[in-house]
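Self-study notes.
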Amino acid sequence: MSAIAAPQHRSSKTESYVDNKRKEDIRHANIVAARSVANAVRTSLGPKGMDKMISTSSDEVIITNDGATILNKMQVLQPAAKMLVELSKSQDSAAGDGSTTVVVIAGALHEQCLLLLSHGIHPTVVSEPLHKAAVKAVDVLTAMAVPVELSDRDSLVKSASTSLNSKVVSQYSTLLAPLAVDAVLSVVDAPKPDMVDLRDVKIVKKLGGTVDDTELVKGLVFDKKVSHAAGGPTRMENAKIAVIQFQISPPKTDIEQSIVVSDYSQMDRILKEERSYILSMIKKIKATGCNVLLIQKSILRDAVTDLSLHYLAKAKILVIKDVERDEIEFITKTLNCLPIANIEHFRTEKLGYADLVEEFSLGDGKIVKITGIKEMGKTTTVLVRGSNQLVLDEAERSLHDALCVVRCLVAKRFLIAGGGAPEIELSRQLGAWAKVLHGMEGYCVRAFAEALEVIPYTLAENAGLNPIAIVTELRNRHAQGEINAGINVRKGQITNILEENVVQPLLVSTSAITLATECVRMILKIDDIVTVR
C-alpha cells in the first residue's frame, strides 16, 4: 500500500506540464498577418513606388499609392492585421504623411520579433527594450534635425515637394507644393502660432482641365450655379451677403395632415396669403440692403419656391441655394458674418461684405466665386482641377498630405533629411548602443536597429537598384560621418540628400517610429484571441 502511495506523493511536488503551444501559435499567426499587410503596401513606398488599383464592392475604382488610403479600402478580417490599418490611420492624423513608412517599419519589427521569439526569448523581455530603443531613436533624430523658420518659404516648399514626389501627381509638385505652403501660412493664427486647423482650408474639386489649372482662391468657391429662375442676377458688385437657415416658402403644418379646399374663392385666398407672406419676407431682406442670399439646404420643405425666386429676382437679389449644413461654419467664418435662423433676426450687422460675387463656367458645369471679402476670416479655398475623377481624387489626397506636412512644420519647426538617411543613421547608432547594453536588452535593441534598414532597402528595391549594394554603401558613408547621405533614386546613387532638397518634417519620422513600436509591443503581448458571438 505504501509502495503505491509513494509515487503519488512525489508527483505532487513536481511541476505540472503547461501547454504553451496555443499561445505561440496565436502570436505567430498575429505576426504573420501583420507582416503580410506590411508587404502589401511595401512596394508603394518612395518616389519610384508602384501604384495600387483598388476596385471596391460598389464598382468604384481608385488608383493611389497613399498607404492610408490603400489600407483603409482593404477588407482586413484578422484582428492583428486590423491594428496595422488603425496604425496607418493614426500616422495619417498625427503627421499626415509617412502612412506607408509606419506600416513597413512595423512589418520589419514584427519579422525581427519573430526571430527573437523563435530563440526562446519571452515576449515581455522583447517588449521592454523596444520601447527604450524607440525613445533613444527619437533623441537621435532630434539631434540630426535642422531648425526651420516659417519665414523660410523655400524650405517649406522643399518639404512639401518631397511629400508630393512619391504621389501619382508628382509631375505637378512644382505647382502644388507652393500652393500648399501658401494655403497653410494664410490660415496660421497669430495668437496660436503652433496650431493649424486644416478645416480652415477648403478643397473644392471640379472636373475638367488638368491639375495645372488648380488655383488658390482668397475667398469662397461654391461648386454650384446661381439660381437662374425668373432671370435673377448672376453677378453682383459691392455684395452684402446673408447666410440664412430659414425657408422662403409657404409654411407647412407641423403634423402630417391634408387641407381640403371646397371652392375657388378659398383657393384664391390661400394663394394670395402665400404671395403676401413671401413678399413680406423679401421686403424685410431688401430693407437691410442685402443683395446676395446663401440659403441652407432644407430637409422638411423646399428652402425656396419658384414664386419666391421670382420675387427675389425682381428685388435684384442673387441667390445661391442648397448650401450644405456642414459648410455653414466655414462660410460664416470666411465672410465674418452670422448665420440667420429666423426672418425676425434679419439685421444689417449680421451681413458679410465682399467686392464681387460672380458665376463662372468651368468644364461641364458652373461655379460661383466670392472675392474681395471685407475683414475676411483666417480661411482659404483651393480649387482642384483634373481631367478625370481618378486624377481629381488622387490630387486631393496628395494635396492633403502636402498640407499636413506643412502643418507638421508649423507645429514642430525642424526638418530632417529623407531618402533613407535618418533610418540608416538610427540603425548605426542603435547598433553601437546595443553593444554597450548587457544581456537580452542588447540583442533586442540590435534587432530593432536591423529592422530600420528596411526603409532604405525598400527604397532601393522599388527604384530598381541593387538593394544589398546600396544599403552596404550607405552604411559605409554613415560610418565615415556623412549623416545626411541618402539614396537618390533619380540618379540611382548615394548623395548628400539635404543638398538634393529631399527633406521631411521631424514629426513625420519620430511619429512613425513611436507609433510602429507601440503597435508591435501591443501585438507581441497578445497570447490569445477570444471571439464573443
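Second protein, same conventions, sequence then structure:
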Amino acid sequence: MEDAQGMTTETVHHPPHDQFDSLDKHTQWGIDFLERYAKFVKERIEIEQNYAKQLRNLVKKYCPKRSSKDEEPRFTSCIAFFNILNELNDYAGQREVVAEEMAHRVYGELMRYAHDLKTERKMHLQEGRKAQQYLDMCWKQMDNSKKKFERECREAEKAQQSYERLDNDTNATKADVEKAKQQLNLRTHMADENKNEYAAQLQNFNGEQHKHFYVVIPQIYKQLQEMDERRTIKLSECYRGFADSERKVIPIISKCLEGMILAAKSVDERRDSQMVVDSFKSGFEPPGDFPFEDYSQHIYRTISDGTISAAKQESGKMDSKSTVGKAKGKLWLFGKKPKPQSPPLTPTSLFTSSTPNGSQFLTLSIEPVHYCMNEIKTGKPRIPSFRSLKRGWSMKMGPALEDFSHLPPEQRRKKLQQRIDELNRGLQKEADQKEALNKMKDVYEKNPQMGDPGSLQPKLAETMNNIDRLRMEIHKNEAWLSEVEGKTGLRGDRRHSSDINHLVTQGRESPEGSYTDDANQEVRGPPQQHGHHSEFDDEFEDDDPLPAIGHCKAIYPFDGHNEGTLAMKEGEVLYIIEEDKGDGWTRARRQNGEEGYVPTTYIDVTLEKNSKGS
C-alpha cells in the first residue's frame, strides 16, 4: 500500500512529438522550392520559344519572295545578306532545340519528380502519425489504469480507517466490526488487482514508447532524410541539364556565326560594280562631235556663174550642206544620234573618175540626188530601215517584245543568249526522252509480252513536235542574236572607218566598202545609176531572195504550224536556198516564192554544183 501510495504521488507527462512537425514543414518547403525552380525553367522555355519565333519572323520578313529568276539576288552584298539570314534562321532553330531539351530533360523531369515526391512524403508522414497515435493510445490506457489504481487505493484506505475505528469502539457490535473487516479485505483485494493492471499497462507503455522513439520514428526520419537528399540531388541534376541544354548547341551556333563571318568576307565590291556595268551596258556609241556649220559662206560667195564647173561646184556644196542638215535630223532608234562629219570632198573628186591605166576624165552626168545618197552611204550612218523604225515605235508603245527589241543592244544580246541556252537545255531533254522512247520501242518490238510498241507512238510524235518547235525557236532566236551581233560589229567598223578617215590621209574607202593605201586610187569614182537605187532600196525594203543552191523532195508531210516554218506535202519538190547548219532545219522555197524552214530529216536533199557561184 505504501508503494501504491508512493506511486500516486508521481506525475506522468504526455510524450513529446520530438521534431516531427519541424520535419513536416521542412519537407514541404523542399517541394515548394522544387516547384518554384520548375516554374523558372518553364518561363525560360517560353522565352527561348518566343525568341526563336521572333527570329524566324524577322528572317521571313527580310527574305526575298523569289517569284521569278529576274528577282534573284546577284550582287555579292545581297547574297551575303541572304546567307546571313539563312544562318540566323538556323540559329533560331538551335534556340528551339534548347527549349525542347529544357522542356523534356529539365521541366518534364521536375514535374514528374515533384509528383512522386509528394506521394512519398505523404506516405512517410502518415506512418509517423500512425505511430504517434498508437503511442498516445498506449499512454491513455496506462493513464487510465493508473487513475483506477489510485482510486481503489483511496477507497481501501478509507475502509481501513473505518475498520480501525469500529474495532477500537467498545460500543460497536461484533457484526459491525465483522462487516467493516470484510469491506476492508474487499477494497484491499481490488487495490491489488488495479495495482497489477497498472503495472502491466505501465510496462507495456514503456516498451511501446521505447520502440517508438528508438525504432519507428528514427526509421521514418531516415526515410524523410533520404527523400530530401534525393530531392537535392535531383535539383543538382536539373541544374546541370539546364546548362547542358545550352552547351550542346554551342558548336552549331558557332558554325552559324562562322557562316555569317564567311558571308561578310564574300562581299566583293569590284564584282558588284562589274555587275552594275554589265546590267546597264547599252552597247550604244557615244555621240560624236557636232559639225561646224559655216553660215558665213553666203556672205563671201562669189556671184560668178560663168563656167559649168563653178555651178557644179556650188551645187555640190549646197547639196552637201543640205545632206548634213538632213543627216542631222534623221530618226535614230533611241533618239537623234549625230555623227562626226565626213571628210569634205574636193571639186576634183566630184567630177573626176579613175581608169584602169591611172588617167582621169571629167564626168558631168552626176545628179545631185546621187551625190547626196553617196554622201549618206559613205560619210554618214545608214538611215534605219522601216523594220527598225517599226521596232523602235513598238518599243515605245509596248512594254516588252518577244525579240527583246525594246532593250539596248547589249542587254538584248544577253537576254537572247540566255533564252537560247534555256531552249538548248530543253532540246537536249527532249532528245534524251526521244532516245529513251526509241529504246523502249525496240525492247517492245523484240519482246511483245512486255508492252505494245504502238502505245509509244503518240508520246514519240509529241516529243518530235516538241523537238521541231524547240529547234525552230532556237533558230529564230539565233537569227535575232546574229542581227544584234551584226549591228554591233557594224557600228564598230563604222567607228573604226571614221577614225581612219580623220587620222590617216592615205586610207580611203572604196565604193565597194573596202580600204586601199594606193595614192592613185584616193579619188573616188562616180557610182553607177542603178547602184544608188539598189542601195537606197536596201534601207527600206527586205533583202533580195537568196539564190537556189539545190532542190529537195519531201519524204514525209510537214504541217508547218510554227512561225517561220514551211508546210509541205509528201513528194513535193522545193528549192534549197540555205543548207542545214547543224540545228536540223533547212531553208527552202516554193516556186511561188514562199520561203520557210523544213526539218532536214523529212526531205531528200540534192545540191547543185557551182550553184552559189551562178
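Instructor comment on the second fold: Confidence is low (pLDDT under 50) at residues 1-16, 303-399, 494-543.
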